[in-house]
Amino acid sequence: MEVVALVSGGKDSCFAMMRCFDYGHKVVALANLIPLDDAVDELDSYMYQTVGHQIVVSYAKCMGLPLFRRRIRGSTRDQGLKYNVTAGDEVEDMFALLSAVKQQIPSISAVSSGAIASDYQRLRVESVCSRLGLVSLAYLWKQDQTFLLEEMIRRGIVAITVKVAALGLKPSSHLGKELAELKCHLLRMNESYGINVCGEGGEYETLTLDCPLFRNARIVLDNYEVILHSADSIASVGILHPQAFHLEHKTHPSGTIGDGSITQEISSCVHEVDEVTTQTDVEEKQTLSPAVDAHTNVDPCISKTGKNLRSIGCWIQNRSRASEGLKADLIAVLSRIDNQLKEEGLGWVNVLYVHLYISNMKEFGLANEVYVSFITEKKCYLGVPSRSTIELPLVQVGLGKAYVEVLVSNELKKRVLHVQSISCWAPSCIGPYSQATLYGEILYMAGQLGLDPPTMKLCPGGPTAELELALQNSEAVANAFSCSIYSSAIHFLVYCSAQLTSDEKEEVEQTLQSSYITRLDCSKTGLYPTVLYVFAPDLPKGARVEIKPILYVPTDDGVATNEMETGIMQPAPSQAWSAQYSGLHDSSCQIHTIGGRICSAVVSVTSDIASKICSTAVQLCNTEENLKAMARFCAFQIAKILADNNFSWGSITMLRFYYSVDHSVAADAMSCAFSEAFAELAEDNSSLRIDDAPLYNIVPVSGSGRSACTNNIITCELLASKH
């Protein structure tokens, strides 16, 4: 991509540019924000470093690139973590600056910044990029600061301190010193006082005088003045004011200075950006979205679980109807969910998670176009929901081409992690879907592929390599919530491509065992997480493996209590049901409970179990009687799990029945079998209310099981929680 680099003069923005080149991008322009008054060194800004701005103008000649500058007219008006477009805010100066750059150089598609740890700064850069249709590149984001400092020095960044404001840093001793000279002192101060060695806490600021990207000249500071802002005896604050400097031209191997071309003289000019973008213009640009024609001639089916926290599923079930295509079907499904949310007095802001199932992964781009017209950052002002997308054999079993399940909460108390910047940290989520959503004590993570974060490409090496990298990516996201997939997992879902060979399936399972299961620390959760493999015809980007962990994040006191949910508990199934299935519970169920408040379970109906509960062992799935027997068995196991662990039917937040399409059973036949099974169970259990909408989702798949090498006839996935 062609990139414009936001430069402050500091080491971080310069090293971020170098990382852009490392990953194959081309920096074609520089952008810098400076004070209105040249005599002012530092502004009271939460966003911008301006100390040393008098020298940054020379970067154009040093690098042979055009430099766009704008004087900062705004101030810090919106101080919230997430930025809302605000007239007169200093962020709007960045918007105006980058707008001008994009107009002058239309080929630019990305913006580089040096953000390392500040969510405040990252979110504002991402907001501006989103409004301009640009990609944010933040290759230093969440990187270890000691590693970054050493790499900057090793790779030839020559930067001096131009501000100090921390215990252990003195204006008289440390201003004007090069990073290489200060490295050991900074590391000692980190050990003694916990300062950030890269200055991320405002401990110090730097000015880059030379780096490998300065191909034409380096900057030589001839004279400067130390200005003391605060003479505090513990942590005095001082800045360096440049008074005189010159450029020292670099001689290239050919003996020339710079490249000596006319193009060089033209490209290294400085552009002053003065035009002002009005609030109205910004709002109009931000609210543009694809038009959605919600008209449809179908009535999608819907399912609902639970009470306060619940799943709403929606699909089209009509074998006699010819689908109008993925776009029409997805519009119909999302419109139905939209209406359901409104009927309940809710909106998309209440949605925590979205499972998007489509019939053809080649139409993923089209599905996204429809998706973003319904689910926007404006509607989801507390953060967009996390998401997982896979292809399923929907049409094969008589369903429409789109199937959506959303996790919804009545309460607006979620915490969302949405990093849109491409970085080395974890794969970015550029669209309106987030890496993870925390609600209560449960962290719902988006599906993670084996993507190399800085390039956003699938790693080479096949399914096991993808699984290894997906685990690393998931751990990075978990760490952002102060937890770990190795000590906090409740449930672990592994999506696999149906194209995997038998050997590859074994290798995936062995890799999960060696790289994940054997490393688990169950001291927090008490038990191993439930594990489920689901096979799908295709995954995003042609991936072979995708993982989707659900994690337990304890409250601040870290103690899981055994508070009982108010309301009626689920009574145990009758003796008649229990006697019929005695001896099969342990062999068919994985169960994981935490503190009496969270329950995850996987119930497997294997061919062996089916042969014991069905009247005929031949063609187990091809008779209505056998389908009903297996559905009845699943309903019993769910009821028993809830009763044994003191959960009610209203506590169910997710209940799915995956069934293999290998057995050629239509979705409506499977739905009918489960409908009858739960109706029969309700007659035996007054606490189970049967409404028009089922409390479960029937999901056709290429295969599923507790092992990658087994293919259950039916697999149940349950999550229940008390709030």
TrEMBL record:
Top class in the EC scheme: ligase
Domain Diphthamide synthase: 1-231
Record-linked CDD domains: AANH_PF0828-like, eu_AANH_C_2
UniProt GO molecular function: diphthine-ammonia ligase activity
Protein name: Diphthine--ammonia ligase
Native organism taxonomy: Eukaryota, Viridiplantae, Streptophyta, Embryophyta, Tracheophyta
Catalyzed reactions per annotation: diphthine-[translation elongation factor 2] + NH4(+) + ATP = diphthamide-[translation elongation factor 2] + AMP + diphosphate + H(+)
Organism: Urochloa decumbens
EC number(s) given by UniProt: 6.3.1.14
